[in-house]
Amino acid sequence: MNSDYYVVIMAGGVGVRFWPVSKSDRPKQFIDILGTGKSLIQQTFERFSKFCPAENIYVVTNLAYRDLVAEQLPQLKSDQILCEPYRKNTAPCIAYANYKIRKRNPAATVVVAPSDHVVLKEAVFLAALREAAAAAARNPWLVTLGIKPSYPNTGYGYIQFDDRAADAAHPQLKKVKLFTEKPEYEMARSFVESGEFLWNAGIFIWSLPAVMAAFKTYLPEIDELFAAYADLLDTPREAEGVEKVYVSCRSISIDYGVMEKADNVYVVAGDFGWSDVGSWNSLYELLPKNAEGNAVVGAEPMTYESKGNLVRVPADKIVVLQGLEDCIVVEDNGVLLVCKRTEEQRIRQFVEDVAREKGERYV
Amino acid sequence: MNSDYYVVIMAGGVGVRFWPVSKSDRPKQFIDILGTGKSLIQQTFERFSKFCPAENIYVVTNLAYRDLVAEQLPQLKSDQILCEPYRKNTAPCIAYANYKIRKRNPAATVVVAPSDHVVLKEAVFLAALREAAAAAARNPWLVTLGIKPSYPNTGYGYIQFDDRAADAAHPQLKKVKLFTEKPEYEMARSFVESGEFLWNAGIFIWSLPAVMAAFKTYLPEIDELFAAYADLLDTPREAEGVEKVYVSCRSISIDYGVMEKADNVYVVAGDFGWSDVGSWNSLYELLPKNAEGNAVVGAEPMTYESKGNLVRVPADKIVVLQGLEDCIVVEDNGVLLVCKRTEEQRIRQFVEDVAREKGERYV
Can you give the pLDDT at residue A169? Predict the structure, then answer.
């Protein structure tokens, strides 16, 4: 494996869309959402362990989740866990990792990826990643992975690309014309029909010089903040320096701050069996279904006249369902949720209602 | 309290209609089915403690439940718990108690009652019981309590009575014309419309001489069996004697064996808020309902667009229900059941399926 290759796993996310399984003290990336026996961050770490040496993998997370990361990824040395004191979106997170990695290896080629996504076709994914990394190592490009869209999903950002290859040496890399935010449905449909758009998976590949140059150009004030405290990194005063940076730093995404503005952005398209599993319904779509269209994580329920349900309960539970259709049935953390799949967007409301009624400890 | 008054609580029943809350190792009478903090047998014991001295209350149960009875009713001395080695229906159970009580008090007036029924109007019930006991103490009558029927229930036996009073001294006691088994619906409806029929609650009141005479007349072979081993009662060889009796004794109910045949049967009618709570639906009918028609035992669920449900989960559970109508939602003993209320008769099938699939320990 190429020892100049590095990976930065972003694991600071919060969210209650998988409530009651995910809660604010244990968000989605730390959950075994697929029932594989491994949490999403553990799966992500294992996937990238096939791309670069494990000691080159960094996890950036919120201070609150440091212990969870250390517990779930005991392979990590403590200096591979970068802790953010405040949530400032992805650009500061990436800048922090850049400065940290630069101390070890200024010639690094870095992959940045979320910790809470699913990739079912790992071999295809790794091949595309290696293609992208090889190109990024040799060129001052900002490379991203794009997912061939299978339907007009309005929950993802899209990437428009130019179908001509970037250059002869890298036929899989296409020049990016446009990054866009989550579109309305009609727009998403025209994106998909055009064949020129890909889903933005939030996975980026670049050399350290290329991405640091981009920060200097597009987010100079963030770069200057990190530069000012760079000497404190890898010293006992690192946390103090990071606190000073984050308290002043603005919150901005790498997409909006850099990718939408830069003109040296390239994409490798592929069908990786990728999903951000953003909600119970997207998990339902992802999972295999039985003859009645029920998808199961954990204990297999006994079902009677029950179709189209997603059932996720602890593995030692006995569940009998009769006459239940198109529902989410989830039990975890002392909470039972039964909810129509079409109403999953109301889970946030349910969580707030429960918090008000029963107290924060359940949320 | 009259120290000649005795009560025999029959607590040998089995059944899975309240599965997964009731199981074969903990049937309904040992369950806090109403969520009052007390099991049905504890409520039954407390109710009869207001009628006679606690030391005059006997519980007849299956050997398998002796420890459960002792645990739930620590007030009982061990010789107040009569253990049946085999299930032989109610007549042998009553004969056993008769012979046992006769050793202490041949002049006893005895109430026999199931352990797993609900009585909401306790004062009315106790008044009727005292009326019946006073009459039974003075007359060689077999007295029963009858419930004024509120609708044509096909799950109960019925008692037809003669509206004229038994005699001037006991205006509340009516002569019974007929005991009948559970009727078909049309028959039940005509029973209710006639005004001449009452529900048979399985509660009997008689003097020891009266009931023992009835056994001698109508079930002489059972009486002879108990008579043959009566000397062993209250000795270290009691269990041995009872085993000998029960192994030969036929299985027969007191209704069929005695009440349907005797001509000295009287009834005290009343509205006691009585129910045998024979199933989840009858519990649903019994419980108070909120504005959406949901009935709850244990934790109060948060409900959204959910009507007509019976929800019974442990008190420390958070439950969120959305879009669920007319269902039974029950969790206990590591089992979650969600089932349309109209399909509750299939619970027996579910239990058998689970037993086959997962092993007996869940049933």
Answer: 85
